[in-house]
Amino acid sequence: MPDPCPATPWRVGMEDLARVLIGEEELRARVCALGAEISRDYAGKDLLLVGVLRGVTIFLADLLRAITIPVAVDFIGISTYGPSTETGGVVRLTKDLEEPIAGRHVLFVEDVIDTGLTLSYLLRTLRARGPASIQVCVLLDKRAHRLIDVDIAYRGFELRDEYVVGYGLDHRQRYRNLPVVGVLRPDRY
Amino acid sequence: MVPHPNHARPRRATGQPVFAHPSEAQFASLLSFYGIAWLYEPTTFPLAWGEDGRVTLAFSPDFYLPEFDLYIELATRKPGEMTLKNRKIRRLQELYPEVHIKLVNRRAFEDLLLKFGLEERSSQLVGGGSHA
Question: Quick one: which of A6, A75, A141, B84 has the fewest CB in 10 Å?
Answer without folding.
Answer: A6
